[in-house]
User: Which sequence fits this backbone?
């Protein structure tokens, strides 16, 4: 009899152990900790997509470089390029994460704004989430 076995990270078994640092840095002591793997994955994705390669001195290859699209003219080609770029970077840097849906919206063309909505999950775990970027 087959069933869908769930994998639980051992780090999630101790709720008092901080696993990472949450974004944005707005706690009274500057950093607030994340205590679950789900929060850590979401924070790592946000940090990766908001960082340009070369920004971190000791890890110059870290970062997606999403800001390269900042001054591109909004068109269907640009939307397709951003979608392919995000998917490619996600597959390369986070191979354990599967994309549930990835949408690039241009609802605010007057403001020259792109909205990237990413819904993701990690197979065989209870980790899923969504992230929205506007640029």
Assistant:
């Amino acid at each position: 009899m087959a069933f869908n076995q769930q994998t639980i990270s051992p780090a999630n078994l101790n709720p008092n152990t901080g696993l990472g640092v949450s974004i944005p840095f707005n706690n009274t002591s500057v950093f607030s900790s994340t205590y679950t793997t789900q929060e850590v994955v979401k924070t790592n994705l946000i940090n990766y997509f908001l960082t340009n390669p070369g920004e971190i001195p000791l890890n110059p290859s870290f970062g997606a470089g999403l800001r390269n699209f900042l001054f591109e003219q909004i068109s269907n080609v640009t939307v397709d390029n951003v979608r392919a770029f995000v998917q490619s970077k996600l597959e390369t840097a986070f191979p354990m994460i599967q994309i549930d849906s990835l949408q690039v919206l241009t609802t605010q063309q007057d403001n020259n704004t792109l909205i990237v909505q990413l819904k993701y999950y990690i197979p065989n775990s209870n980790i899923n989430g969504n992230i929205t970027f506007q640029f």
